[in-house]
């Protein structure tokens, strides 16, 4: 999909959203392979997350997220990327740093997106419960039916992609303020992985699933709520299907308008409001 040549030896940017993950970062950061940059996105931690990260990995870049939620943290990190390839990496020790070259290899081999999968042959999980597994499989089935796809692990957050795909994805900009009522903007939560996958798919990017083994969180507890976040994911699938249709309709209208000599048609994303 890229209109420019991509390097055979890309500069890799690892983006790590973290909130109160100091103890886990002591374990995770030394295990990362040599990369172009590591970007820690701090979610207003009240422990020594930032100080620990800088002590363990002095070269780390730290940015502060501007709203709340994992989706916003990732968006802030993506905006700070200077490399060719972006790797989404969790701070809780669940992601295996040794797998990063596997993701990069898939991109160099021709994929636009390397999507981690715990259910692909060679993948697995030490952490997922029976309830979460059933929920994931159900959401996978629904998304594949609605999107005409064949993903095996829709909600997994370990992914890598070429940075030049980001403008097409169109995530909410970090400059948008937190709503006055304190609510979370759509796309700022754990539904971010689903939104990214849906938009990569709608854009026609080549997506390759990469087997990945999810490990146990070492310290602390997850902020993920299987029920409420599952509902957000399901809502995201329906929303993204509708959004893809609207974008396609606008493109067709713009094409018709151009043929009859009309001016450009404005394409607005209601989420940016």
Task: Summarize the SSE layout with pairings.
Elements: E1 12-18, H1 22-28, E2 37-42, H2 49-56, E3 61-64, H3 70-80, E4 85-88, H4 100-108, E5 113-117, E6 124-125, H5 130-147, E7 159-162, H6 166-169, H7 192-202, E8 207-211, E9 213-214, H8 226-259
Parallel strand pairs: 1-2, 1-4, 2-3, 5-8, 6-9
Antiparallel strand pairs: 4-7, 5-7
Describe what this molecule looks like in 3D.
Belongs to the glycosyltransferase 2 family. The protein is α/β, with parallel strands linked by helices and 273 residues long. The chain has one domain: Spore Coat Polysaccharide Biosynthesis Protein SpsA, Chain A. 37% of the residues lie in helices and 14% in strands. The chain has 8 helices and 9 strands. A 7-stranded mixed β-sheet has the order 3-2-1-4-7-5-8, with helices on both faces. It has a two-stranded parallel sheet with strand order 6-9. The two termini are 28 Å apart.
